[in-house]
Amino acid sequence: MNRERLFSQLASHSGPFDIAIIGGGATGLGAAVDAASRGHSVVLIEQSDFAKGTSSRSTKLVHGGVRYLKQGNVSLVLEALRERGLLCKNAPHLVHSLPFVIPSYHWWEGPFYGIGLKVYDTLAGQLGLEPSRYLSREDMIELLPTLETEGLDGGVIYHDGQFDDARLAIHLARTAVNHGAIVLNHMRCCGLMKENGHIIGVQAECAETGRQYEIRAKCVINATGVFVDDVRHMDEPKAEKIVAASQGVHLVLPREFLPGDSAIMIPKTDDGRVLFAVPWHGRVIIGTTDTPVEHLSVEPRALPEEIAFLMTHAARYLTRDPKPSDVLSIYAGLRPLVAMKNAESTAALSRDHTILIADSGLITITGGKWTTYRRMAEDVIDHAEMIGGIGVKRCVTHDLMIHGSATVLAKDDPLAVYGSDASDIRALAAHEPEWAGKVHPKLDLTCAEVVFNTRHEMARTVGDVLARRSRSLLLDAQSSMSAAPRVAALMAAELGWDAKKTAHQVERYQHLACGYILEG
Hints:
This protein is of the alpha+beta class. The protein has helices at residues 3-12, 26-38, 66-70, 74-90, 109-124, 137-143, 165-178, 228-235, 304-317, 373-388, 422-431, 447-456, 462-469, 472-475, 477-495, 499-514; strands spanning 17-22, 42-45, 61-62, 95-104, 133-136, 154-163, 182-184, 187-195, 198-206, 212-222, 243-254, 263-266, 275-280, 283-287, 291-292, 329-338, 353-357, 363-367. The radius of gyration is 23 Å and the shape is globular. The two termini are 42 Å apart.
């Protein structure tokens, strides 16, 4: 996946593309994979980096949604459980089963949650993971030695999926390119092209060169997450907004706060949300909050009350109370919830995806969640075939293996998330022995990975590498700041940066990373 080569393909393409997609998160990339694998000509543009926004800031779960079952939304749970099973099958290098434990501190909680989880198991059918079961107090202490034991009665264990969200996004981009799509990051949509009131393409600008492009297409899909209304207003300035954003915040703690291989799920917190404590890449993620937000930002920041909420609940359920100095990183993401009239809170808004078709032919898709990205893509491309008049072709993603899936490494292998690409990284390290070393002692990221990220995964900034190609920013923000100069030097050699640009990249990243560090 080479950016210069893809730009050459864009320049040499004759006539309009079948489909142009705005947005390089889970929804847009999924749509690109679906359309390209059907045989359509596809171009996707992303103003920043792939999965820069919400799609890299999740709780890292591929799940059916236990809380939606409690709400009675069986159809959403059924769809999500089916998609969970398909994702485990099609991306086994990135998705795996993870045990979740629900502790019971009242005698009735075990049977209550146990019955619900048996229903959850049944709905998953043949695509299910391991069955749920009851746990004694002794079982709970053995599985979760740092769980608060005062008043503990027992619990229930069930299984859901876990993944690396940003890595899956990169592998979806590579899958789309493998099927002939052109996907371009750092490429901003700055306008829509119209003819007789109908959209015939997009105007785009390369963030690196400032060069303008006119990309003609028979159909344009707006898949920009919480920012879909901005694109809709390019088409219809007076269009009513459809997204009510909600902010979710997560804390990242050292693994000693939750040793072992099981996660904790608290079904109902003080604000009515589900709380998770999840082991991930040698750390523990605590989240999430649900806070309505008016101002939309590509870099949302956690509010003091959200941080206090998570710290309080972590202390409530763990024997060791975390201090601000224990927090390795804190990150926030915005959920694109579809607004409904008379909804009392963002927790009540729809998690289902929504597709809107404007009079101009612009197709907007928003809502949904990572787990159902494939189904969302299938739905929106079905619509695009009709709107664009590009011919109806069968969706093949049900059984389509994601790039890298040919090799599944041991879960504790530092290169496991690369799948079959890991051998190429090891070859780089063998060719240049100094690249085998880490960029920082506290991070698993090697110099060879940085070179690979730059050459083959379209990393164009230090942030692209440290935040999304690797997850260093989330795993240890402070250490990632220290690693930035080494990463920048490696990228400079690959991309031809001069000393001034290299220094600017380091400064820019360190400014960004400061927002992920909890002061105090």
